[in-house]
Protein backbone atom coordinates (compact mmCIF):
# COMPACT_ATOMS: atom_id res chain seq x y z
CA UNK A 1 0.00 0.00 0.00
CA UNK A 2 1.41 3.39 -1.01
CA UNK A 3 2.23 5.89 1.72
CA UNK A 4 1.75 8.79 -0.67
CA UNK A 5 -1.37 10.87 -1.25
CA UNK A 6 -3.50 10.04 -4.27
CA UNK A 7 -2.57 13.34 -5.94
CA UNK A 8 1.19 12.77 -5.50
CA UNK A 9 3.45 11.51 -8.28
CA UNK A 10 4.99 9.33 -5.54
CA UNK A 11 8.55 8.06 -5.81
CA UNK A 12 10.63 9.59 -8.57
CA UNK A 13 14.16 8.86 -9.72
CA UNK A 14 16.34 11.60 -11.24
CA UNK A 15 17.69 10.85 -14.71
CA UNK A 16 20.86 12.05 -16.36
CA UNK A 17 21.87 12.61 -19.97
CA UNK A 18 25.38 13.31 -21.23
CA UNK A 19 25.91 15.56 -24.25
CA UNK A 20 29.13 15.34 -26.25
CA UNK A 21 28.35 17.93 -28.91
CA UNK A 22 29.69 21.35 -27.80
CA UNK A 23 27.11 23.91 -26.74
CA UNK A 24 28.03 27.31 -28.13
CA UNK A 25 27.42 29.94 -25.45
CA UNK A 26 26.46 33.60 -25.67
CA UNK A 27 29.71 34.59 -23.94
CA UNK A 28 31.68 33.22 -26.92
CA UNK A 29 32.87 30.03 -25.27
CA UNK A 30 31.67 26.48 -25.87
CA UNK A 31 30.98 23.79 -23.30
CA UNK A 32 31.51 20.06 -23.86
CA UNK A 33 30.97 17.51 -22.61
CA UNK A 34 28.18 18.34 -20.18
CA UNK A 35 25.35 16.60 -18.35
CA UNK A 36 21.80 17.58 -17.48
CA UNK A 37 19.91 16.01 -14.59
CA UNK A 38 16.13 15.91 -14.85
CA UNK A 39 12.97 14.26 -13.60
CA UNK A 40 9.81 13.31 -15.48
CA UNK A 41 6.27 12.83 -14.20
CA UNK A 42 3.42 11.29 -16.15
CA UNK A 43 3.79 9.70 -19.59
CA UNK A 44 4.49 11.07 -23.07
CA UNK A 45 1.49 10.24 -25.25
CA UNK A 46 1.70 8.62 -28.69
CA UNK A 47 1.37 11.99 -30.44
CA UNK A 48 4.11 13.47 -28.21
CA UNK A 49 1.99 16.61 -27.83
CA UNK A 50 1.41 16.59 -24.06
CA UNK A 51 4.87 17.54 -22.77
CA UNK A 52 5.27 20.40 -20.28
CA UNK A 53 8.63 21.86 -19.32
CA UNK A 54 9.09 23.28 -15.81
CA UNK A 55 11.83 25.91 -15.54
CA UNK A 56 13.20 26.60 -12.08
CA UNK A 57 14.09 29.87 -10.37
CA UNK A 58 17.46 31.00 -9.01
CA UNK A 59 18.00 28.40 -6.29
CA UNK A 60 15.72 25.72 -7.74
CA UNK A 61 16.55 22.34 -9.24
CA UNK A 62 15.11 19.31 -11.01
CA UNK A 63 13.20 17.90 -8.03
CA UNK A 64 9.87 19.67 -8.58
CA UNK A 65 7.40 17.00 -7.43
CA UNK A 66 7.11 13.71 -5.57
CA UNK A 67 9.68 12.10 -3.33
CA UNK A 68 13.11 10.54 -3.78
CA UNK A 69 12.46 8.11 -0.95
CA UNK A 70 9.68 7.09 1.40
CA UNK A 71 11.62 8.83 4.18
CA UNK A 72 11.94 12.20 2.42
CA UNK A 73 10.35 14.80 4.67
CA UNK A 74 9.38 17.33 1.99
CA UNK A 75 8.28 16.71 -1.58
CA UNK A 76 9.68 18.56 -4.61
CA UNK A 77 9.61 22.34 -4.61
CA UNK A 78 6.41 22.68 -6.73
CA UNK A 79 4.57 19.58 -5.54
CA UNK A 80 1.51 21.70 -4.79
CA UNK A 81 1.06 22.24 -8.54
CA UNK A 82 2.34 19.01 -10.16
CA UNK A 83 0.59 15.65 -9.82
CA UNK A 84 -2.55 13.68 -10.66
CA UNK A 85 -5.49 16.08 -10.74
CA UNK A 86 -3.36 19.09 -9.77
CA UNK A 87 -2.91 22.29 -11.77
CA UNK A 88 -0.26 20.64 -13.94
CA UNK A 89 -2.07 17.33 -14.15
CA UNK A 90 0.20 14.34 -14.68
CA UNK A 91 -2.81 12.30 -15.80
CA UNK A 92 -2.83 14.55 -18.87
CA UNK A 93 0.71 15.88 -19.17
CA UNK A 94 4.22 14.49 -19.46
CA UNK A 95 6.10 16.88 -17.18
CA UNK A 96 9.85 17.49 -17.41
CA UNK A 97 11.82 19.36 -14.77
CA UNK A 98 15.59 19.81 -14.99
CA UNK A 99 18.50 21.28 -13.09
CA UNK A 100 19.84 24.01 -15.34
CA UNK A 101 23.33 23.90 -16.76
CA UNK A 102 25.63 25.64 -14.27
CA UNK A 103 23.57 24.37 -11.35
CA UNK A 104 24.82 22.52 -8.30
CA UNK A 105 22.30 19.70 -8.08
CA UNK A 106 23.69 17.26 -10.62
CA UNK A 107 23.90 19.11 -13.92
CA UNK A 108 27.35 20.23 -15.04
CA UNK A 109 28.33 23.38 -13.20
CA UNK A 110 31.20 25.13 -11.43
CA UNK A 111 31.48 22.39 -8.79
CA UNK A 112 31.74 19.66 -11.47
CA UNK A 113 35.09 18.17 -12.47
CA UNK A 114 36.59 19.66 -15.61
CA UNK A 115 37.76 16.94 -18.03
CA UNK A 116 40.69 19.19 -19.00
CA UNK A 117 42.13 19.69 -15.50
CA UNK A 118 40.68 16.85 -13.43
CA UNK A 119 39.68 19.47 -10.86
CA UNK A 120 36.50 21.42 -10.15
CA UNK A 121 35.77 24.06 -12.77
CA UNK A 122 35.42 26.71 -10.09
CA UNK A 123 35.96 30.21 -11.47
CA UNK A 124 36.83 28.83 -14.92
CA UNK A 125 33.24 27.71 -15.61
CA UNK A 126 31.84 29.87 -18.42
CA UNK A 127 29.24 32.56 -17.84
CA UNK A 128 25.75 31.47 -18.91
CA UNK A 129 22.63 33.30 -20.02
CA UNK A 130 18.93 32.45 -20.07
CA UNK A 131 19.28 31.93 -23.83
CA UNK A 132 22.02 29.34 -23.23
CA UNK A 133 19.74 27.45 -20.84
CA UNK A 134 16.94 27.39 -23.40
CA UNK A 135 19.27 26.01 -26.07
CA UNK A 136 20.42 23.26 -23.69
CA UNK A 137 16.78 22.50 -22.81
CA UNK A 138 15.95 22.21 -26.52
CA UNK A 139 18.65 19.56 -26.85
CA UNK A 140 17.14 17.68 -23.92
CA UNK A 141 13.73 17.90 -25.58
CA UNK A 142 15.22 16.27 -28.67
CA UNK A 143 16.55 13.41 -26.52
CA UNK A 144 13.11 12.92 -24.95
CA UNK A 145 11.33 12.90 -28.31
CA UNK A 146 9.57 16.21 -27.71
CA UNK A 147 9.42 18.33 -30.85
CA UNK A 148 6.94 20.80 -29.37
CA UNK A 149 6.08 21.60 -25.76
CA UNK A 150 2.40 21.86 -24.91
CA UNK A 151 3.60 24.49 -22.42
CA UNK A 152 6.75 25.88 -20.90
CA UNK A 153 6.04 27.04 -17.34
CA UNK A 154 8.17 28.97 -14.88
CA UNK A 155 8.17 31.50 -12.06
CA UNK A 156 10.68 34.32 -11.52
CA UNK A 157 13.88 33.34 -13.38
CA UNK A 158 11.89 30.35 -14.64
CA UNK A 159 9.38 32.73 -16.20
CA UNK A 160 12.19 34.42 -18.08
CA UNK A 161 13.15 31.04 -19.51
CA UNK A 162 9.55 30.40 -20.59
CA UNK A 163 9.51 33.76 -22.36
CA UNK A 164 12.88 33.07 -24.01
CA UNK A 165 11.54 29.73 -25.25
CA UNK A 166 8.68 31.53 -27.02
CA UNK A 167 11.19 33.91 -28.62
CA UNK A 168 13.97 31.47 -29.53
CA UNK A 169 11.87 28.46 -30.58
CA UNK A 170 8.44 29.84 -31.57
CA UNK A 171 7.46 26.66 -33.42
CA UNK A 172 8.35 24.42 -30.46
CA UNK A 173 6.06 25.87 -27.79
CA UNK A 174 2.25 26.22 -27.83
CA UNK A 175 1.76 27.93 -24.46
CA UNK A 176 4.07 30.15 -22.42
CA UNK A 177 3.23 30.48 -18.72
CA UNK A 178 5.27 33.28 -17.13
CA UNK A 179 4.64 33.78 -13.41
CA UNK A 180 6.01 36.53 -11.14
CA UNK A 181 8.59 37.56 -13.69
CA UNK A 182 9.73 40.48 -15.85
CA UNK A 183 11.08 41.12 -19.36
CA UNK A 184 14.26 42.46 -17.73
CA UNK A 185 15.51 43.33 -14.25
CA UNK A 186 15.14 46.79 -12.80
CA UNK A 187 18.20 48.69 -11.58
CA UNK A 188 17.10 47.95 -8.01
CA UNK A 189 17.02 44.23 -8.69
CA UNK A 190 20.47 44.31 -10.25
CA UNK A 191 21.65 46.22 -7.19
CA UNK A 192 20.33 43.56 -4.80
CA UNK A 193 22.11 40.89 -6.84
CA UNK A 194 25.36 42.84 -6.71
CA UNK A 195 25.18 43.15 -2.92
CA UNK A 196 24.71 39.38 -2.71
CA UNK A 197 27.65 38.75 -5.04
CA UNK A 198 29.86 41.12 -3.08
CA UNK A 199 29.00 39.24 0.12
CA UNK A 200 30.28 36.06 -1.53
CA UNK A 201 33.33 37.37 -3.38
CA UNK A 202 34.66 39.31 -0.38
CA UNK A 203 34.47 36.26 1.90
CA UNK A 204 38.10 35.33 2.77
CA UNK A 205 37.28 31.72 1.85
CA UNK A 206 36.18 32.60 -1.69
CA UNK A 207 39.73 32.43 -3.13
CA UNK A 208 38.69 34.04 -6.43
CA UNK A 209 36.16 31.27 -7.00
CA UNK A 210 38.63 28.40 -6.59
CA UNK A 211 37.73 27.62 -2.98
CA UNK A 212 37.37 23.89 -3.73
CA UNK A 213 41.14 23.68 -4.21
CA UNK A 214 41.55 24.94 -0.64
CA UNK A 215 38.97 22.56 0.83
CA UNK A 216 36.72 25.39 2.01
CA UNK A 217 33.51 27.18 1.01
CA UNK A 218 32.66 30.88 1.43
CA UNK A 219 30.00 30.00 3.97
CA UNK A 220 29.62 33.42 5.54
CA UNK A 221 29.28 35.08 2.13
CA UNK A 222 26.64 32.58 1.05
CA UNK A 223 24.76 33.14 4.29
CA UNK A 224 24.68 36.89 3.79
CA UNK A 225 23.70 36.55 0.13
CA UNK A 226 20.79 34.31 1.06
CA UNK A 227 19.69 36.62 3.86
CA UNK A 228 19.64 39.63 1.52
CA UNK A 229 17.80 37.64 -1.15
CA UNK A 230 15.28 36.19 1.26
CA UNK A 231 14.26 39.62 2.50
CA UNK A 232 13.39 40.60 -1.06
CA UNK A 233 11.31 37.46 -1.62
CA UNK A 234 8.92 38.33 1.21
CA UNK A 235 6.54 41.26 1.61
CA UNK A 236 6.53 43.63 4.57
CA UNK A 237 3.08 42.31 5.51
CA UNK A 238 4.16 38.66 5.43
CA UNK A 239 7.24 39.34 7.54
CA UNK A 240 5.17 41.40 9.92
CA UNK A 241 2.48 38.77 10.37
CA UNK A 242 5.04 35.99 10.74
CA UNK A 243 7.48 37.70 13.09
CA UNK A 244 6.36 41.23 14.00
CA UNK A 245 8.82 42.56 16.55
CA UNK A 246 8.75 39.42 18.65
CA UNK A 247 11.75 38.86 20.88
CA UNK A 248 13.42 35.53 21.49
CA UNK A 249 13.53 36.31 25.19
CA UNK A 250 11.37 38.48 27.42
CA UNK A 251 13.48 41.62 27.16
CA UNK A 252 16.23 43.33 25.18
CA UNK A 253 19.73 42.52 26.35
CA UNK A 254 21.46 45.50 24.71
CA UNK A 255 24.10 43.39 22.96
CA UNK A 256 25.01 44.76 19.52
CA UNK A 257 25.90 41.33 18.10
CA UNK A 258 23.31 39.03 19.65
CA UNK A 259 20.20 37.61 17.98
CA UNK A 260 17.30 39.22 19.84
CA UNK A 261 14.39 39.37 17.38
CA UNK A 262 12.70 36.31 15.91
CA UNK A 263 13.14 37.67 12.39
CA UNK A 264 16.92 37.80 12.95
CA UNK A 265 16.91 34.18 14.05
CA UNK A 266 14.85 33.19 11.02
CA UNK A 267 17.17 34.90 8.55
CA UNK A 268 20.26 33.38 10.13
CA UNK A 269 18.69 29.94 9.94
CA UNK A 270 17.84 30.45 6.27
CA UNK A 271 21.39 31.56 5.58
CA UNK A 272 22.94 28.64 7.45
CA UNK A 273 20.75 26.09 5.71
CA UNK A 274 21.37 27.56 2.27
CA UNK A 275 25.15 27.74 2.68
CA UNK A 276 25.23 23.99 3.29
CA UNK A 277 23.43 23.01 0.07
CA UNK A 278 24.23 25.60 -2.59
CA UNK A 279 27.42 26.37 -4.47
CA UNK A 280 28.76 29.92 -4.32
CA UNK A 281 29.93 30.03 -7.95
CA UNK A 282 26.52 28.78 -9.07
CA UNK A 283 24.91 31.61 -7.10
CA UNK A 284 27.10 34.14 -8.90
CA UNK A 285 26.31 32.54 -12.26
CA UNK A 286 22.55 32.45 -11.68
CA UNK A 287 22.31 36.08 -10.52
CA UNK A 288 24.36 37.23 -13.51
CA UNK A 289 21.99 35.35 -15.84
CA UNK A 290 19.15 37.30 -14.21
CA UNK A 291 20.98 40.59 -14.72
CA UNK A 292 21.82 39.88 -18.37
CA UNK A 293 18.29 38.89 -19.40
CA UNK A 294 16.96 41.58 -21.72
CA UNK A 295 15.69 40.08 -24.99
CA UNK A 296 14.40 43.45 -26.20
CA UNK A 297 17.97 44.77 -26.32
CA UNK A 298 18.38 42.99 -29.67
CA UNK A 299 15.62 45.24 -31.06
CA UNK A 300 16.66 48.57 -29.61
CA UNK A 301 14.62 48.05 -26.47
CA UNK A 302 11.38 47.51 -28.41
CA UNK A 303 9.75 44.63 -26.54
CA UNK A 304 6.75 44.40 -28.87
CA UNK A 305 9.09 44.01 -31.84
CA UNK A 306 11.02 41.35 -29.91
CA UNK A 307 7.81 39.39 -29.36
CA UNK A 308 6.53 39.79 -32.91
CA UNK A 309 7.66 36.33 -33.97
CA UNK A 310 6.26 34.27 -31.12
CA UNK A 311 3.47 31.81 -31.84
CA UNK A 312 2.61 30.67 -28.32
CA UNK A 313 -0.42 31.74 -26.37
CA UNK A 314 0.77 33.33 -23.14
CA UNK A 315 -0.45 33.40 -19.55
CA UNK A 316 1.11 36.08 -17.35
CA UNK A 317 0.48 36.05 -13.59
CA UNK A 318 1.63 38.47 -10.89
CA UNK A 319 1.07 38.99 -7.15
CA UNK A 320 -0.02 42.24 -5.52
CA UNK A 321 2.70 42.36 -2.82
CA UNK A 322 5.57 41.14 -4.99
CA UNK A 323 7.85 44.16 -4.98
CA UNK A 324 10.81 42.33 -6.47
CA UNK A 325 8.87 41.47 -9.67
CA UNK A 326 5.94 43.81 -9.29
CA UNK A 327 2.68 43.68 -11.25
CA UNK A 328 3.90 46.74 -13.16
CA UNK A 329 6.61 44.58 -14.75
CA UNK A 330 3.96 42.06 -15.81
CA UNK A 331 1.87 44.89 -17.31
CA UNK A 332 4.93 45.81 -19.37
CA UNK A 333 5.06 42.30 -20.79
CA UNK A 334 1.30 42.05 -21.33
CA UNK A 335 1.14 45.42 -23.10
CA UNK A 336 3.99 44.44 -25.40
CA UNK A 337 2.26 41.17 -26.26
CA UNK A 338 -0.96 43.04 -27.03
CA UNK A 339 0.95 45.57 -29.14
CA UNK A 340 2.42 42.64 -31.06
CA UNK A 341 -1.14 41.30 -31.52
CA UNK A 342 -0.47 38.08 -29.58
CA UNK A 343 -2.92 36.02 -27.53
CA UNK A 344 -2.33 36.75 -23.84
CA UNK A 345 -4.22 36.17 -20.60
CA UNK A 346 -3.32 38.07 -17.44
CA UNK A 347 -4.20 37.73 -13.79
CA UNK A 348 -3.00 39.77 -10.83
CA UNK A 349 -3.53 37.76 -7.66
CA UNK A 350 -4.21 39.28 -4.26
CA UNK A 351 -1.59 37.67 -2.04
CA UNK A 352 0.26 38.83 1.07
CA UNK A 353 3.31 36.59 0.62
CA UNK A 354 5.39 38.73 -1.76
CA UNK A 355 7.55 37.18 -4.48
CA UNK A 356 7.50 33.76 -2.80
CA UNK A 357 3.75 33.57 -3.50
CA UNK A 358 4.41 31.79 -6.80
CA UNK A 359 5.70 28.78 -4.84
CA UNK A 360 2.71 28.57 -2.49
CA UNK A 361 -0.70 26.86 -2.80
CA UNK A 362 -2.74 30.07 -2.77
CA UNK A 363 -6.30 29.01 -3.74
CA UNK A 364 -7.06 31.65 -6.39
CA UNK A 365 -3.62 31.21 -7.94
CA UNK A 366 -3.97 27.42 -8.12
CA UNK A 367 -7.50 27.69 -9.46
CA UNK A 368 -6.44 30.09 -12.21
CA UNK A 369 -3.40 28.04 -13.20
CA UNK A 370 -5.52 24.89 -13.23
CA UNK A 371 -8.15 26.54 -15.40
CA UNK A 372 -5.59 27.63 -17.96
CA UNK A 373 -3.70 24.33 -18.07
CA UNK A 374 -6.95 22.35 -18.39
CA UNK A 375 -7.78 24.29 -21.57
CA UNK A 376 -4.56 23.20 -23.28
CA UNK A 377 -5.49 20.66 -25.92
CA UNK A 378 -3.58 17.38 -26.00
CA UNK A 379 -4.25 14.12 -27.79
CA UNK A 380 -6.05 11.63 -25.56
Automatic annotation (TrEMBL):
EC numbers for this chain: 2.3.1.46
Involved pathway(s): Amino-acid biosynthesis; L-methionine biosynthesis via de novo pathway; O-succinyl-L-homoserine from L-homoserine: step 1/1
Pfam families per the UniProt record, alphabetical: Abhydrolase_1
Keyword Nucleotide-binding carried by entry: no
Site (described: Important for acyl-CoA specificity): 324
Subcellular localization, as worded in the UniProt entry: Cytoplasm
Record-level Gene Ontology MF annotations: homoserine O-acetyltransferase activity; homoserine O-succinyltransferase activity
Catalytic activity entry: L-homoserine + succinyl-CoA = O-succinyl-L-homoserine + CoA
InterPro entries, alphabetized: AB_hydrolase_1, AB_hydrolase_fold, HAT_MetX-like
One of the record's GO cellular component terms: cytoplasm
Biological processes per GO annotation: homoserine metabolic process; methionine biosynthetic process
Domain AB hydrolase-1: residue ranges: 50-359
Binding site for substrate: 226, 356
Enzyme class: transferase
Keywords per UniProt: Acyltransferase, Amino-acid biosynthesis, Cytoplasm, Methionine biosynthesis, Transferase
Active site: 156 (nucleophile), 322, 355
Job description of the protein: Transfers a succinyl group from succinyl-CoA to L-homoserine, forming succinyl-L-homoserine.
Record family assignment: Belongs to the AB hydrolase superfamily. MetX family.
Record-linked NCBIfam families: homoserO_Ac_trn, PRK00175.1
Subunit structure: Homodimer.
Name of the protein: Homoserine O-succinyltransferase
Encoding gene (name): metXS
Amino acid sequence: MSTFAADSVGLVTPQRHSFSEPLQLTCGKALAPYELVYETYGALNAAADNAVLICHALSGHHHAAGYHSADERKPGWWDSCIGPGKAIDTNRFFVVSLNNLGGCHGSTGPSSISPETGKAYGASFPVLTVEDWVHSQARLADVLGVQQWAAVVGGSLGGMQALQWAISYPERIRHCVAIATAPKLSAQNIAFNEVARQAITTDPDFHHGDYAAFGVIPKRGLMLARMVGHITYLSDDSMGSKFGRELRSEQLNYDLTSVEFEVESYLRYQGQEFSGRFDANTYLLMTKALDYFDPAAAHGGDLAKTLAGIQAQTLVMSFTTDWRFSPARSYELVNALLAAKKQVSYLEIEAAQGHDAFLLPIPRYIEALSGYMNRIEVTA
